[in-house]
TrEMBL record:
Pfam families referenced in this protein's UniProt entry, alphabetically: EF-hand_2 (PF09068), EF-hand_3 (PF09069)
InterPro entries: EF-hand-dom_pair, EF-hand_dom_typ1, EF-hand_dom_typ2, KCMF1/Dystrophin
Listed GO biological process terms: synaptic signaling
Transmembrane parts of this sequence: none
Segments forming domain EF-hand: 7-131, 135-168
Protein known as: EF-hand domain-containing protein
Native organism: Pectinophora gossypiella
Domain of life, per lineage: Eukaryota
Length: 168
């Protein structure tokens, strides 16, 4: 079998996104391609939030790291819940989508010192950015992750957020 990570990269190369002149458009096209391949365009922000709750990741500190097994459980629960809402003719392959999303997240966020682990904040940023949903709902969720208990934006978290988004 083909490695899902290299398969996705190969498919993206075949789309000729690199011929797009402006970097911002090129990046947007690549992210949209990943979003559609992983079926994140049919998972909304509320489903992402619910998956974090179901898997008890909403209570963890943003800097906490989760291992691949826990990430796999989160990702597969997203797709299992999606299939519950979709008609039988439109069901997605939980295994294929999970593997693709998992490998994409790992390639985007794992570093030399943290192989096989991803910070909770990184997962939240990636999924909130790539999922579907109303813009205001997504922005409110992201702001809730960047602010303190009094609703004040924490500059350190904003800086981390920007770093995480740019890693995508």
């Amino acid at each position: 079998p083909v490695d899902p990570r290299s398969q996705l990269l190969q498919e993206m190369r075949e789309q000729n996104f690199d011929l797009i002149r402006f970097a911002s458009y090129r990046t947007a096209c690549k992210l949209r391609y990943v979003q559609k391949k992983c079926n994140l365009h049919v998972i909304d922000i509320w489903n992402v939030i619910e998956a974090f709750r179901e898997n008890a990741l909403n209570t963890l500190e943003p800097t906490a790291c989760v291992n691949v097994t826990r990430l796999e459980t989160l990702v597969s629960s997203l797709y299992h819940n999606l299939n519950k809402r979709l008609p039988p003719a439109h069901q997605v392959s939980v295994e294929a989508c999970s593997a693709l999303l998992l490998n994409w997240l790992l390639s985007a966020y794992t570093t030399g010192e943290n192989v096989g682990k991803i910070r909770v904040f990184s997962i939240k940023v990636a999924l909130a950015t790539m999922c579907a949903g109303k813009l205001m709902d997504k922005l409110r969720y992201i702001f809730s992750q960047l602010s303190d208990g009094n609703g004040h934006l924490l500059m350190k978290r904003l800086s981390e957020y920007l770093r995480e988004v740019l890693a995508l």
